[in-house]
Amino acid sequence: MSMGWIQNHLRSQTQTSGQPEANSETYFQEAARRRWQQLGDELKADLAEFSSGQEEATLSHAAENKFRISNSDSGLELLITADFEAHTIRYEYSPLNKNSAGTPDGGMLSMRQSRQGMVEFYSADERLTSEEARQVLLEPVLFPPQKAA
Predict the structure, then answer these.
(1) What separation in angstroms does the CA of 53 have from each of 61, 78, 135, 142?
(2) What is the H or E stretch that residue 120 is in?
(3) 80 lies in some domain
């Protein structure tokens, strides 16, 4: 029985690189964690700006790799979860109360390392600026398409 392409690929990776591959993955995860912390700080700043108006949204650090953002006015909660090993960030929306005009679909952003070693967010294959990434995540919670009457 011949080996499949996946086995061949995995075998050639371990034979050629071995240690350096592990080091670059460790380096990526460290950079991804730094970027995740930065995202948290940026989200807090966005929420502070939003909450200076009449409405208030809150961010809590549910776990090292989870942020929970709630807005009782829109009736939505957003859970953002980082999976550093899979290089992804998942986001899910759920109703908090009856104010919700419907719950938008969540999604996933991928984390990729640039040539400069920085970690950037991608939606599908499109690189997002930091502001675009935050808009994708926050807009449904802060500015729902229509609030329930």
Answers:
(1) 23, 20, 18, 12
(2) strand 119-123
(3) yes
The span from the CA of 118 to the CA of 28, in Å, is 9
Task: List the 107-113 sheet strands across, edge first.
Answer: 58-63, 66-71, 76-83, 88-95, 107-113, 119-123, 126-128
Judge whether 44 and 27 are in contact, CB under 8 Å. no
On whether residue 25 sits in a domain, the answer given is yes
Residues 101, 146 contacting (CB under 8 angstroms)? yes
Instruction: Give the position of tokens 């929970």.
Output: 68
In a domain, 3, yes or no: no
Asked if residue 28 belongs to a domain, the reply is yes
Distance of CA 102 to the CA centre of its chain: 22
**Entry pTM:** 0.80
Which is it for the CA torsion 109, 87, 34, 17, positive or negative?
A: negative
Residue 52 domain boundaries:
20-142
pLDDT tens, position by position, 1-32: 556 777 766 766 555 444 556 688 899 999 99
Number of other CB atoms surrounding residue 132 within 10 Å: 13
Specify the number of domains making up the chain.
1
CA atoms within 13 A on the CB side of 37: 5
What's the whole-number average pLDDT of the chain? 87
